[in-house]
Glycine cleavage system transcriptional repressor (Vibrio algicola), 181 residues
Amino acid sequence: MMQTFIVNFAGQTSPPIIHQLAKITHENGGKWLVSKINYLDEQVSGLIKIKMPTQHIEAVKDAFTQQKGLTVYFADSTDCSEEKTSDDQQNNLYNMRVDAEDRGGIVHDISQTVETEHGQIINIESNRVFLADSLGVSASMFSSHLTVTLPTATNIQDVISELETLGMQANVVKKSKAKQS
Protein backbone atom coordinates (compact mmCIF):
# COMPACT_ATOMS: atom_id res chain seq x y z
CA MET A 1 0.00 0.00 0.00
CA MET A 2 1.26 3.49 -0.87
CA GLN A 3 1.05 6.46 1.47
CA THR A 4 1.69 10.17 0.93
CA PHE A 5 3.17 12.49 3.55
CA ILE A 6 4.90 15.85 3.78
CA VAL A 7 8.33 16.50 5.29
CA ASN A 8 8.86 20.03 6.61
CA PHE A 9 12.41 20.88 7.69
CA ALA A 10 14.63 23.82 8.56
CA GLY A 11 18.17 24.28 9.80
CA GLN A 12 21.69 23.82 8.53
CA THR A 13 22.57 21.34 5.80
CA SER A 14 24.04 21.22 2.32
CA PRO A 15 22.80 20.24 -1.16
CA PRO A 16 24.71 16.91 -1.05
CA ILE A 17 22.80 15.93 2.13
CA ILE A 18 19.48 16.78 0.45
CA HIS A 19 20.57 14.70 -2.55
CA GLN A 20 21.38 11.80 -0.20
CA LEU A 21 17.90 12.05 1.37
CA ALA A 22 16.35 11.88 -2.11
CA LYS A 23 18.46 8.80 -2.86
CA ILE A 24 17.33 7.09 0.38
CA THR A 25 13.70 7.85 -0.52
CA HIS A 26 14.17 6.35 -3.99
CA GLU A 27 15.98 3.26 -2.63
CA ASN A 28 12.96 2.62 -0.39
CA GLY A 29 10.50 2.75 -3.31
CA GLY A 30 9.42 6.34 -2.77
CA LYS A 31 9.40 9.45 -4.90
CA TRP A 32 9.29 13.17 -4.24
CA LEU A 33 6.05 14.40 -5.80
CA VAL A 34 6.63 18.08 -5.00
CA SER A 35 9.59 19.76 -3.37
CA LYS A 36 10.32 23.35 -2.41
CA ILE A 37 13.77 23.83 -0.93
CA ASN A 38 15.31 27.24 -0.25
CA TYR A 39 18.78 28.18 0.90
CA LEU A 40 19.62 31.49 2.56
CA ASP A 41 23.17 31.97 3.78
CA GLU A 42 23.98 28.83 5.78
CA GLN A 43 20.31 27.94 6.38
CA VAL A 44 17.88 25.74 4.48
CA SER A 45 14.13 25.26 4.68
CA GLY A 46 12.07 22.81 2.72
CA LEU A 47 8.77 21.12 2.10
CA ILE A 48 8.73 17.78 0.32
CA LYS A 49 5.65 15.73 -0.58
CA ILE A 50 6.64 12.05 -0.68
CA LYS A 51 4.69 9.02 -1.90
CA MET A 52 6.05 5.61 -0.96
CA PRO A 53 5.21 2.10 0.25
CA THR A 54 3.87 2.19 3.81
CA GLN A 55 6.34 -0.44 5.04
CA HIS A 56 9.34 1.81 4.22
CA ILE A 57 8.08 5.14 5.56
CA GLU A 58 9.83 4.85 8.94
CA ALA A 59 13.22 4.28 7.28
CA VAL A 60 12.87 7.49 5.28
CA LYS A 61 11.53 9.47 8.23
CA ASP A 62 14.49 8.24 10.30
CA ALA A 63 16.91 9.40 7.59
CA PHE A 64 15.48 12.92 7.82
CA THR A 65 15.32 13.09 11.63
CA GLN A 66 18.89 11.80 12.03
CA GLN A 67 20.33 14.79 10.15
CA LYS A 68 22.20 16.97 12.65
CA GLY A 69 21.23 20.61 12.52
CA LEU A 70 17.79 20.01 11.00
CA THR A 71 14.45 20.37 12.72
CA VAL A 72 12.00 18.04 10.97
CA TYR A 73 8.19 17.68 11.09
CA PHE A 74 5.96 15.22 9.25
CA ALA A 75 2.31 15.52 8.20
CA ASP A 76 -0.03 13.12 6.43
CA SER A 77 -1.14 14.25 3.00
CA THR A 78 -3.17 13.23 -0.01
CA ASP A 79 -1.83 12.13 -3.36
CA CYS A 80 -1.68 14.75 -6.12
CA SER A 81 -3.49 12.37 -8.45
CA GLU A 82 -6.64 12.26 -6.34
CA GLU A 83 -9.61 13.93 -7.96
CA LYS A 84 -9.95 17.63 -7.36
CA THR A 85 -13.08 18.97 -5.76
CA SER A 86 -15.48 21.07 -7.77
CA ASP A 87 -14.23 24.13 -5.81
CA ASP A 88 -10.68 23.50 -7.07
CA GLN A 89 -11.97 23.29 -10.63
CA GLN A 90 -13.66 26.69 -10.21
CA ASN A 91 -10.38 28.51 -9.51
CA ASN A 92 -7.93 30.24 -11.83
CA LEU A 93 -4.22 30.38 -11.08
CA TYR A 94 -2.30 33.63 -11.69
CA ASN A 95 1.34 34.72 -11.48
CA MET A 96 1.95 38.35 -10.52
CA ARG A 97 4.74 40.68 -9.56
CA VAL A 98 4.10 43.56 -7.18
CA ASP A 99 6.62 46.39 -6.82
CA ALA A 100 6.11 49.15 -4.27
CA GLU A 101 7.84 51.51 -1.93
CA ASP A 102 8.64 49.38 1.11
CA ARG A 103 6.73 49.89 4.35
CA GLY A 104 5.83 47.90 7.41
CA GLY A 105 2.95 45.44 6.94
CA ILE A 106 3.01 45.34 3.15
CA VAL A 107 3.04 41.50 2.96
CA HIS A 108 0.11 41.38 5.40
CA ASP A 109 -1.80 43.89 3.27
CA ILE A 110 -1.16 41.90 0.08
CA SER A 111 -2.38 38.71 1.81
CA GLN A 112 -5.49 40.47 3.13
CA THR A 113 -6.31 41.86 -0.32
CA VAL A 114 -6.11 38.43 -1.96
CA GLU A 115 -8.17 36.85 0.84
CA THR A 116 -10.79 39.61 0.63
CA GLU A 117 -11.26 38.68 -3.03
CA HIS A 118 -11.74 35.03 -1.94
CA GLY A 119 -8.33 34.06 -3.31
CA GLN A 120 -5.44 32.15 -1.84
CA ILE A 121 -1.71 32.77 -2.08
CA ILE A 122 -0.02 29.56 -3.23
CA ASN A 123 3.52 30.95 -3.29
CA ILE A 124 5.11 34.28 -2.45
CA GLU A 125 8.74 35.33 -2.79
CA SER A 126 9.63 38.80 -1.59
CA ASN A 127 12.75 40.94 -1.71
CA ARG A 128 13.68 44.35 -0.44
CA VAL A 129 16.13 46.52 -2.33
CA PHE A 130 17.79 49.51 -0.74
CA LEU A 131 18.41 52.44 -3.06
CA ALA A 132 21.29 54.68 -2.08
CA ASP A 133 22.61 57.99 -3.21
CA SER A 134 25.80 59.79 -2.25
CA LEU A 135 24.34 60.54 1.20
CA GLY A 136 23.41 56.92 1.98
CA VAL A 137 20.21 54.89 1.85
CA SER A 138 17.42 57.07 0.59
CA ALA A 139 14.65 54.58 -0.15
CA SER A 140 13.69 50.96 0.19
CA MET A 141 11.78 49.15 -2.56
CA PHE A 142 9.71 45.99 -2.11
CA SER A 143 9.29 43.43 -4.88
CA SER A 144 7.20 40.28 -4.65
CA HIS A 145 6.42 37.43 -7.03
CA LEU A 146 3.10 35.76 -6.21
CA THR A 147 1.15 32.77 -7.42
CA VAL A 148 -2.49 33.08 -6.41
CA THR A 149 -5.72 31.20 -7.02
CA LEU A 150 -8.90 33.16 -7.54
CA PRO A 151 -12.46 31.95 -8.08
CA THR A 152 -13.53 32.27 -11.71
CA ALA A 153 -16.16 34.76 -10.54
CA THR A 154 -13.40 37.10 -9.33
CA ASN A 155 -11.97 39.46 -11.92
CA ILE A 156 -8.17 39.62 -11.73
CA GLN A 157 -8.39 43.33 -12.61
CA ASP A 158 -10.26 43.94 -9.32
CA VAL A 159 -7.43 42.32 -7.39
CA ILE A 160 -4.84 44.33 -9.32
CA SER A 161 -6.72 47.57 -8.61
CA GLU A 162 -6.81 46.78 -4.90
CA LEU A 163 -3.10 45.87 -4.84
CA GLU A 164 -2.21 49.10 -6.62
CA THR A 165 -3.80 51.10 -3.79
CA LEU A 166 -1.47 49.57 -1.18
CA GLY A 167 1.24 52.20 -1.48
CA MET A 168 1.94 55.44 -3.25
CA GLN A 169 4.00 53.70 -5.89
CA ALA A 170 2.46 50.23 -5.78
CA ASN A 171 2.13 48.76 -9.22
CA VAL A 172 1.34 45.27 -10.46
CA VAL A 173 3.75 45.01 -13.35
CA LYS A 174 3.20 41.44 -14.48
CA LYS A 175 0.22 39.17 -14.62
CA SER A 176 -0.32 35.95 -16.48
CA LYS A 177 -2.74 33.12 -16.19
CA ALA A 178 -0.67 30.18 -14.97
CA LYS A 179 -1.25 26.58 -15.99
CA GLN A 180 -2.77 24.31 -13.36
CA SER A 181 -1.15 20.96 -12.85
